[in-house]
Write a structure and sequence with these properties.
Blueprint lengths: L32 H5 L15 H13 L5 H9 L3 H6 L10 H8 L4 H22 L7 E8 L1 H5 L6 E7 L5 E6 L5 H11 L6 E4 L6 H9 L3 E6 L4 H9 L11 E10 L2 E11 L6 H4 L6 E11 L4 E11 L8 H11 L1 H12 L13 H18 L5 H10 L3 H6 L6
Parallel strand pairs: 1-4, 4-5
Antiparallel strand pairs: 1-2, 2-3, 5-9, 6-7, 7-8, 8-9
Helix pairs in contact: 2-3, 2-14, 3-5, 6-14, 8-9, 13-14
Length: 409
Amino acid sequence: MPATPLAPSFALPHPAPCPAQAEPAAALDFPSLYDYLAQVPDARDPRGLRHPLPAILALVLCALLCGARHLCAIAEWGRNHPEELIAALGFTRPKTPSCSTLHNLLQELAWAELEAQIRAWAAAVEAPLGAEHPQTQEEALALDGKTMRGALKLGAEVTATVTALGHRLGLTAGAVEVVKGDEIAAVQTLLKRLLLGGKVVTLDALHTQRETARLIREQDGHYVMTVKGNQPELREAVEGLFVPEAAPEQERESVWETELGHGRVENRWLLALSIPIPAPEALATWPGAAQVFVVERQVWKKKQRVGHRELVYGITSLTREQAGPADLLRLLRGHWRIETRSHYIRDVTFGEDASTVRTGKIPQVLALFRAAAISRFRADGVTNVAKETRRLMAQAGDCLRLLGLEADN
């Protein structure tokens, strides 16, 4: 039988509410994204090449920034704009690549090298902000997988990627392919490529794995993981610490917050507890474990006059001094920005789920470019990506500034 949890704070005298998270200020000066794209190696036979690779990559990114959804639309974007704009992107001929040319090039593109350059650009944008706010909990990365459903239906070889998204700015910090449906291995591969020192990694229950926790701690990072049925022994140990007799009053810390909007009222309450010594074996052997927590969500839909309640348990390597209940609740809420600020936009604004491209590396390449386009918008402080793409349709020349080419024109 599951343990009976401690009563939620709604039934007790309220502790201090969780402070609202302020929106980060957008950076003003950025490294040139074009310069990073120019570092992607060109594997084509140099004989008979008509277009430089950096120009083609810049064309793809500009077209996506303006709302193009597929290869033919990208090719048409290049053909529909004046020669001055095309020359500024690095083309030496007035006629830009056709749809078939783009198809042939992108399916053989060095995806890993492209991802590495976009990751390096994002790190260069984040670095000055990190220096201003050292060791803050806003320095957090959310890791999650996303399936490209259109490619999946047509049987593409790789149909999913794992993405790391910064909580603060919403920049894509890295991405990796999911091979043979093994998302856990993909997350661990991506963690080895990221600079995690001083950062907090947030993950959902699928990735609550000992090896994942060990990789994060080995790189001087911290983790916040939810604990569900895929780790039964760990969940039982965590639940056992939240029965009243196992958690003395003086060792408990809690926080609550209330959110109103979208026709509903949502109360969230988080209770955190440092792991005692001696700890249950499942917790004592978990790499870096320092605190456990339980979150209760109570949602009331006013129009339907119905509500529901759920409990979620979790574990973190952050000590009580490093992260109190308010910090943990903010990190948990920040994790879902990867859904609202990346995955949703890739599907709705950029049509990723509707894309039926399935050849070679093209699905992964376009997914990476969509993430890069969103990152570039976020770096400028853009909150409504769809609105900004519509603006760029009429002012395509502004794409040059976004790629760092404005000074050359």
